[in-house]
């Protein structure tokens, strides 16, 4: 028999032992479930204690009073501890392991006392009422416990055994067949309750694990939604939310705050030449170093690409400048990425609250505008937003929209400025210069609207139109007068230019040799050989090329070496200084000499005085252009001028006899 019991115990232990695979979170939840309902513990303690006292009184045996006293004590202690547990839980979400062990001990002690009391009453008295009370109490206790403590199977099974085993033994030993059968049923009830507990436990566990999985998924999604997957810093959405919250909860509208918008200079080149993996690693390192540089003074977020936003609360202008300087200083160190030592620079735009705006989106827009300025001023610098930038931006927007309409509404015009042969005084070329009258802003200078057209892509259709118009107009001039059209550098890299030139020549019927394209030295900037090819192609079909504003770029002589030009136009800044500045004279003379050696024509731009005209003729520049001779004029005036010359009127450039320098 003892062997059978030992075997039974071993089997039950293995079957109902607590799982070691549960996560700490699930374990905590199960312990919490044990203490979950202090009310049920209290009602168990009250009913168990009351019946124990009745049994002690009924049997009138002192030992029974001791057991009843102990049962009351344990029941009350457990009820108090469960209330105390709930308070502890308010301070720490994870209960200490001692709570689990204390519950087990209390539960088993209480169950054992109830079982012992039932056993003793069955043996000490023949009072059937007391027997019903004792057995009923234990049976209902065991039934309730299997559900209540299903979170901890071994606890519940232990309680069932400790309460039911002595009761069933007492019933069997009582010496009555009915009692014996009841004892047997109580014994079988242990297994039935065990199975119910186990099944309930499985269901509880599945529910808890499902809940845990869901909360882990929610945390994961929240991370994905808030943080940039590459660099680990906050992403654009989280940054915007942070800003919105900051402004929403701002109690003091005058508290300063800074937003720094950082953009790496020429990051695309690193990506294109060294590959995206190097680019990505560089961004990761940058994010890390930005965090270190800020050192708690603000938050870093990646706006996208190579752009980062630094949000610095409680930061005044001087501190914001300090942060920007620290960032510049940090960037001046090398970045070591996959064996490459990369030297990078960045441009930073800064906007301040409340001066530059008291709304997150507006401040971001303003920081972006300041960034644009920092880039335009040569990059590798920071700039603070100021309201004139905003006005400028609004004007640019106005002009861009206006230009788009101007392409179709005919408000774009071409004026022509004649360029005279310095010796004969005859018109040799007419330069087409675009004119635009904005519907309500009035006349806008091409120096303002051409760069806007270039940055918005409108320059392509505008040049197409100018080429067509200029070629058609030139058909009305004498055959020996050429027309010059200005071409933006960006267009010289596109196939569209050759197409537009061919189409203008074909539709107008103008001979290619009468069309001259004026380009500036900036065509050499970022040239991958395409402009050389395209210009070569255009020259082959007979077009002439003029190098405009010669001497103002960074590669004046190099552009003469790389491309074949037919005309060099000496920039008006040199012509203007001819009388005061010996250096300008030296440069103008050298260009005249250089052009003669290269066998190309020259144009002196910006002649405003007789002295300038005399001088450029003297040094041998072959053509002259300037307000002293003629301003840019509309087509009808130009035709009248040409008619006048034909009728024998003197050319403004012909009244001084040419003198060649020795
Ligand atoms: P640019 O090609 O160097 O044109 C010469 C500019 O100098 C013209 O200014 C002309 O009016 C001005 N100019 C001529 N003689 C004198 C003078 O004696 N004194 C002074 N102070 N200025 C003189 P404009 O018409 O304002 O054009 C400015 C620039 O805009 C042009 O410089 C050219 O780069 C660009 N541009 C004009 N029309 C077009 C066009 O159709 N396409 C492109 N891509 N650019 C154009
Ligand atoms: Mg020009
Ligand atoms: Mg020029």
Quickly name the level 1 CATH class of the largest domain.
Alpha Beta
Poorly predicted runs of 5 or more residues: 656-662
Largest β sheet strand count, sense and barrel closure: 8 strands, mixed, barrel
- Estimate the helix proportion, in percent: 55-70%
Give the name of the CATH architecture of the largest domain.
Alpha-Beta Barrel
Explain what this protein looks like in three dimensions.
With 662 residues, this protein is an alpha/beta fold. The protein folds into three domains: 2-219, no CATH class; 236-385, Reverse transcriptase/Diguanylate cyclase domain (Alpha-Beta Plaits); 399-652, Alpha-Beta Barrel (TIM Barrel). It is built from 23 helices and 17 strands. Strand 12, helix 18 (530-540) and strand 13 form a beta-alpha-beta unit. Helix 4 packs antiparallel against helix 5 (97-124), helix 5 runs antiparallel to helix 6 (128-148) and helix 10 (267-274) packs antiparallel against helix 11. The protein is rod-shaped. The model is unreliable at 656-662 (pLDDT under 50). It binds ligand C2E and magnesium ion (MG) (2 copies). One magnesium ion binds at residues 548-549, 569, 605.
Q: TL;DR of this structure?
A:
With 662 residues, the chain is α/β, with parallel strands linked by helices.
């Amino acid at each position: 028999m003892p062997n059978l019991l030992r075997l039974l115990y071993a089997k039950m232990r293995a079957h109902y032992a607590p799982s070691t695979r549960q996560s700490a979170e699930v374990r905590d939840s199960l312990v919490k479930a044990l203490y979950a309902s202090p009310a049920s513990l209290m009602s168990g303690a009250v009913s168990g204690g009351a019946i124990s006292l009745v049994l002690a009184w009924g049997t009138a045996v002192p030992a029974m009073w001791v057991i009843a006293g102990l049962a009351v004590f344990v029941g009350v202690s457990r009820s108090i501890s469960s209330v105390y547990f709930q308070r502890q839980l308010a301070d720490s979400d994870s209960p200490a392991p001692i709570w689990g062990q204390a519950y087990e001990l209390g539960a088993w002690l209480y169950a054992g006392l109830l079982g012992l009391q039932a056993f003793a009453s069955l043996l000490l008295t023949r009072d059937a009422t007391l027997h019903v009370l004792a057995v009923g109490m234990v049976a209902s206790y065991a039934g309730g416990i299997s559900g209540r403590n299903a979170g901890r199977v071994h606890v519940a099974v232990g309680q069932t055994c400790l309460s039911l085993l002595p009761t069933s033994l007492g019933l069997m030993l009582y010496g009555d067949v009915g009692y014996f059968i009841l004892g047997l049923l109580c014994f079988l009830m242990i297994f039935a309750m065990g199975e119910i507990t186990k099944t309930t436990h499985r269901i509880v566990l599945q529910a808890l694990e499902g809940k845990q999985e869901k909360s882990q998924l929610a945390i994961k999604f929240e991370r994905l939604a808030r943080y940039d997957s590459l660099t680990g810093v906050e992403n654009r959405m989280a940054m915007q939310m942070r800003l919105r919250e900051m402004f929403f909860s701002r109690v003091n509208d005058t508290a300063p705050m800074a937003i720094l918008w950082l953009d790496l200079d020429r990051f695309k080149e690193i990506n294109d030449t060294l590959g995206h993996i190097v680019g990505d690693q560089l961004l990761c390192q940058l994010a890390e170093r930005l965090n270190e540089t800020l050192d708690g003074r603000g938050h870093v977020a990646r706006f996208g690409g190579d752009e980062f936003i630094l949000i610095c609360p409680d930061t005044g202008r001087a501190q914001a400048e300090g942060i920007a300087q620290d960032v510049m200083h940090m960037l001046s160190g090398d970045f070591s990425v996959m064996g490459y030592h990369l030297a990078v620079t960045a441009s930073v735009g800064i906007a301040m609250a409340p001066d530059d705006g008291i709304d997150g989106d507006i401040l971001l827009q303003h920081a972006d505008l300041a960034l644009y300025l920092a880039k335009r001023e040569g990059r590798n610098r920071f700039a603070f937003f100021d309201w004139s930038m905003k006005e400028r931006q609004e004007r640019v927007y106005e002009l861009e929209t206006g230009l788009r309409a101007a392409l179709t509404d005919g408000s774009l015009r071409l004026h022509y400025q004649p360029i005279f042969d310095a010796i004969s005084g005859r018109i040799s070329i007419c330069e087409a210069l675009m004119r635009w009258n904005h519907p309500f802003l009035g006349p806008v200078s091409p120096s303002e609207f051409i760069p806007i057209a270039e940055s918005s892509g409108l320059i392509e259709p505008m040049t197409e139109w100018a080429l067509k118009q200029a070629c058609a107009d030139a058909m009305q001039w004498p055959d020996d007068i050429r027309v010059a059209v200005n071409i933006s550098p960006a267009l010289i890299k596109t196939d569209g230019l050759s197409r537009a030139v061919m189409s203008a020549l074909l539709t107008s019927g103008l001979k290619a040799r009468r069309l001259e394209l004026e380009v500036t030295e900036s065509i050499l900037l970022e040239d991958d050989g395409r402009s050389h090819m395209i210009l070569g192609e255009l020259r082959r079909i007979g077009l002439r090329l003029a190098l405009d504003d010669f001497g103002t770029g960074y590669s004046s002589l190099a552009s003469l070496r790389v491309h074949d030009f037919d005309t060099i136009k000496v920039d008006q800044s040199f012509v203007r200084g001819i009388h005061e500045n010996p250096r300008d004279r030296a440069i103008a003379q050298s260009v005249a000499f250089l052009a003669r050696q290269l066998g190309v024509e020259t144009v002196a731009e910006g002649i405003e005085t007789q002295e300038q005209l005399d001088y450029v003729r003297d040094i041998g520049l072959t053509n002259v252009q300037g307000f002293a001779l003629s301003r840019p004029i509309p087509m009808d005036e130009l035709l009248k001028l040409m008619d006048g010359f034909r009728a024998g009127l003197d050319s403004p450039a012909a009244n001084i006899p040419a003198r060649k320098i020795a």
